[in-house]
Design a protein that fits this description.
250 residues; alpha/beta; 12 helices; 10 strands; 43% helix; binds guanosine-5'-monophosphate; binds manganese (II) ion; binds sodium ion; Diguanylate cyclase (GGDEF)-like protein
């Protein structure tokens, strides 16, 4: 069982590492971005996935420090990539509400020299649940810096279409549950079609998550989905594998 002190010790011992998963443009096959995904290199337990420690980090507030580590690592790593390759960073709702957020992003960009337009921040619908003035102000401040904002896990949670009206998102990430059932469920196909159509009409990029096979990719291409991400291309891998993951469009 993980405890707050384990997380604190791990931060101090530098046991966290950012992995990257490529995101490809569906039409050209080119890698256009990588999503930063946090891992914990535990000395005894090995690699621990975020579902096992993010909730505790959120409860204890340590997510703010952890999130700053991810932002700094992601911006520093991305600064060494080709400049037409972006980086996407997940923001916890707790981190989003922290008064440090704008300063953390500003600092990560300044320290790395990364162009703000190459940074995408992924937020989930839960951030928008209260739809408070403060949330919208933060989103607009980030946007004014040049940072782009993605709506992650779209279609899960409360998924109100009014979220798309409350803020001009740059990207919608279609949750992988819809992609996994694409070939077997008519309704998943219909939902993907509706969301890609919505993206087209609103001028918002759509990214399908969890793409695992060529049949799914082909269906997404046919629906005009902009980008795809998933094990078909690569699992999340260490920063040292990015050059390899950038190789040739498939
Ligand atoms: O890496 P994996 O595919 O196991 O990620 C599982 C979940 O953990 C996803 O919902 C993802 O958004 C979340 N996650 C991964 N890395 C981070 C991170 O750096 N910050 C936050 N807040 N969530 C993350
Ligand atoms: O919630 P979020 O979209 O931020 O997190 C992405 C999560 O999805 C990570 O846990 C990542 O490891 C996982 N993932 C990425 N690609 C695939 C895939 O093709 N199949 C499955 N099952 N999971 C994936
Ligand atoms: Mn994400
Ligand atoms: Na997601």
């Amino acid at each position: 069982r993980l405890l707050e002190m384990d997380l604190r010790a791990a931060l101090q011992r530098d046991e966290f590492e950012v992995f990257y998963q490529p995101i490809r443009d569906v039409a050209s096959g080119r890698v256009v971005a990588f999503e930063a995904l946090l891992r914990w290199n535990h000395p005894q337990r090995g690699l621990i996935a975020p579902i096992h420690f993010i909730p505790l980090a959120e409860e204890t507030g340590l997510i703010v420090q952890l999130g700053e580590f991810v932002l700094r690592s992601a911006c520093t790593d991305a600064a060494s990539w080709p400049d037409d390759v972006d980086v996407a960073v997940n923001l916890s709702p707790v981190q989003f509400k922290s008064p440090n957020l704008i300063a953390s992003v500003t600092e990560a960009l300044a320290a790395s020299g990364l162009d703000a337009r190459r940074l995408e921040l992924e937020i989930t619908e839960s951030v928008l649940l209260q739809n408070s003035e403060a949330t919208l102000t933060t989103l607009h401040e980030l946007r004014a810096m040049g940072v782009r904002i993605s709506l992650d896990d779209f279609g899960t949670g409360y998924s109100s279409l009014s979220y798309l009206r409350s803020f001009p998102f740059d990207k919608i990430k279609i949750d992988r549950s819809f992609v996994s059932e694409l070939a077997t469920r008519e309704d998943s196909m219909a939902i993907i079609r509706a969301v890609t159509g919505l993206g087209r009409s609103l001028g918002i990029v759509t990214t399908a998550e969890g793409v695992e096979n060529d049949a799914q990719l082909e269906l997404l291409r046919r629906e005009g989905c902009t980008q795809a991400q998933g094990y078909l291309f690569s699992k999340p891998r260490p920063a040292s594998d990015v050059a390899m993951m950038l190789e040739g469009p498939r």
